[in-house]
Amino acid sequence: MRVLLVVYDNDMYCHWFPQGMAYIAAALIQARHDVEIYSQDKHHYPEEHLTAYLDENKFDVICVGVIAGYYQYRKLLKISEAISKSKNRPFYVLGGHGPSPEPEYFLRKTQADAVVIGEGEVTIVELMDALFHRRPLYSVNGIAFRAAPSAPSWKEKIIINEKRPLIEDINSITFPAYHLFPMDYYRMLRMPHTENSDFVMPVLSGRGCSFKCSFCYRMDKGFRPRSNENIISEIKLLKGMYGITYIAFSDELLMSSSERTVSLCKDIIEAKLNIKWCCNGRLNFARPDVLYLMKQAGCVFINYGIESMDDEVLKNMNKVLTTDQIVRGIEATLDAGISPGFNIIFGNIGDNRETLRKGVNFLLEYDDGSQMRTIRPVTPYPGSPLYYHAIEKGLLKDCEDFYENKHINADLLSVNFTELSDDEFHRCLYEANNRLLDKYFKEKFYDLVEQSKKLYSEKNINFRGFRQS
């Protein structure tokens, strides 16, 4: 079958490589389907271009994957409208973290024909097989679908099939179909401590997470690591074919345990990959010996989910982390010569002005300026425990209320779990982020002044210009 995979425009200069779609593409190619990529993100095509492209080309199936962000949701509605306008409208499949927790809502809202729920490599191939052989779709586990696609939008029957088990051996999953994508574009992604000459690409070291924070919309339990050999093989492929020099490990938790992290770092060193890399980490695994080995293996940045500097709030969000562990872990990370990323959110159950003050003061004391860091309000994404808590408490009606009314911007309050009024809440965030931005830009200014001083007083011949600084 002929399949078009749409990578939507995220309104960015350089978009993150669409790993999920690339894995789906690889699975479809392996099953001998004809796959094409529509790169709206690179070319910034308007939606009318997609309609015209579908009118001029015949595809059997079109697939769109989307996360649960406010911008992405509204973009999806526009793309769905463009697909529906085509005189050659293909069978329309949705996937990703956005539709998976609430497939019925997304099917009705977008008029898509099916949703692949959760992990998609096996499911999409079985769905294609069912479509090709005209078998009933209720035979395909892991999907939801519209049983009467010709009926008016809100009257048709939605069927949600049995959940598909996770792929146990993730080393058996084919590498992403990199060759189908404009890699010269994606490898220009910038990450902390990239040089102008670096080429960047994300890699998954595993799938899932061993923890279940209240704000996380991940539906599946547990962590499934890839083997070190499998990971290193993919990195070698990226280095050899695309000149990649910096790997951004994009899974939720490369540091799933100290033992696993040590093992992977030793094998990266032994393989002599000579790369820089960053990852997401847990501060309860941030031991000095582990961090020094990570540094030896090329790690330059660890993105930590701190979320709060108040122990009661951390407990409320089921973070399984204490403020003492956070401080020790951040200090050990800095001592190892690795930059830490500070993710702090405000508005969780138990948050107030004092808990926000603690978070801001912590950032001001420890942030090394490798990234601009601000504090955002917590968002109860569909599928997260916090989402169902909000519905139970009457703070949120349903999925439509979340997407259409509440979640209008990631930096604005969607649901207020605090005792502050909405105006007080935003005032607190305004004042907090002003302090953080003031420090960040002052340090950048002082750094430029020092470069200028070194240039003119020491005649620094390696200086490349202030615009390159």
CATH topology of the largest domain: TIM Barrel
Biggest pleated sheet: 7 strands, mixed
Tell me which CATH architecture of the largest domain applies here. Answer: Alpha-Beta Barrel
Helix/sheet category: alpha/beta
Report the uncertain regions: none
What's the level 1 CATH class of the largest domain? Answer: Alpha Beta
Domain B12-binding: 1-138
InterPro entries: BchE-like, Cobalamin-bd, Elp3/MiaA/NifB-like_rSAM, Methyltransferase_Class_B, rSAM, rSAM_horseshoe, rSAM_sf
Organism: viral metagenome
Keywords: Iron, Iron-sulfur, Metal-binding, Methyltransferase, S-adenosyl-L-methionine, Transferase
What does this structure look like?
The chain is an alpha/beta fold and 469 residues long. It folds into two domains: 159 residues, Rossmann fold, CATH 3.40.50.280; 192 residues, Aldolase class I (TIM Barrel), CATH 3.20.20.70. Helices cover 40% and strands 16% of the residues. The protein is built from 16 helices and 15 strands. The strands form three sheets. The chain has a seven-stranded mixed β-sheet, with helices on both faces. Strand 4, helix 5 and strand 5 form a beta-alpha-beta unit. Helix 13 packs parallel to helix 16. The mean pLDDT is 95. GO terms for molecular function: 4 iron, 4 sulfur cluster binding; catalytic activity; cobalamin binding; metal ion binding.
